[in-house]
Amino acid sequence: MLVVEDERDIAFPLVRTLEREGYDVAWVGTGREVLDVVGRDPSDVVILDLSLPDMDGLDVCRSLRDTGYDGAIMIVTARTGELDRVVGLDSGADDYLTKPFGLAELQARVRALLRRTRVHDHTGRADASALRLDVEARRVYAGESEIKLTSKEFDVLSVLEAHRDKVVPRGRLMSEVWDENWYGSTKTLDVTIGRLRQKLEQAGLPDRVVAVRGVGFRLEHTLPAP
């Protein structure tokens, strides 16, 4: 993974966070360095700031695509206008995150990008077993097929996905999905989890919601049986 950010106070915590998640992370601060590094050793994901000292990040994005780079590009920038997002995506970016942003959200988006780029074969067809969340549209897909979820099912899955492979406490799910003033039975959460599990399984997804007794739930990817 390659982080492209010229401000050390932004780049340093970002790199450390990604490294703690187990990613092999390189860091550069100029557009020309990006093209040199990717040319020698293509990364799965490039996290690209637009305001670089030597080149506009959009030009870097276009250059990467023009030279055949087919990994994921996430633009991270303070430019917040709709036109800026449109231009960024049209320049070849796969995702667009505006500053300031939470590290947990960035990590979730990185995981989503990695799944998206790793579930295509050489023909470019999507693997039917890939889970994908479109948070803005509130839609969930197994490959190219949409999974119909209720509002609460989607909210629970979104929280679990944002913390994939980590246990999310029951109390946190209740407060984030229902709200901290919910006085109903926590069985509501168990019923929602049960329906969500059933729908993921029916869609043929290898992703499972695992209960950790006395603590909470974890979304994880299960390997196929040998």
Description:
With 226 residues, this protein is α/β, with parallel strands linked by helices. The chain folds into two domains: 2-118, Response regulator (Rossmann fold); 132-221, Orthogonal Bundle (Arc Repressor Mutant, subunit A). 42% of the residues lie in helices and 20% in strands. The chain contains eight helices and eleven strands. The protein has helices spanning 8-20, 31-40, 57-66, 82-90, 103-118, 151-162, 170-178, 187-202, and strands spanning 2-4, 26-28, 45-49, 72-77, 95-98, 131-134, 139-142, 145-147, 168-169, 207-212, 216-221. A five-stranded parallel sheet has the order 2-1-3-4-5, with helices on both faces. Helix 2 (31-40) packs parallel to helix 3 (57-66), helix 6 packs across helix 7 (170-178) and helix 6 packs across helix 8. It is elongated, with a radius of gyration of 19 Å.
Produce a short descriptive summary.
The chain has 226 residues and is of the alpha/beta class. The chain has eight helices and eleven strands. The protein has two domains: 2-118, Response regulator (Rossmann fold), CATH 3.40.50.2300; 132-221, Winged helix-like DNA-binding domain superfamily/Winged helix DNA-binding domain (Arc Repressor Mutant, subunit A, Orthogonal Bundle), CATH 1.10.10.
Strand order of the biggest β-sheet: 2-1-3-4-5
Give the overall shape, derived from the CA principal axes: elongated
**The first-level CATH class name of the largest domain:** Alpha Beta
CATH superfamily of the largest domain: Response regulator
CATH fold field value of the largest domain: Rossmann fold
Q: Quick one: biggest sheet?
A: 5 strands, parallel
Domain OmpR/PhoB-type: 123-221
Pfam families: Response_reg, Trans_reg_C
Domain Response regulatory: 1-114
Organism: Nocardioides islandensis
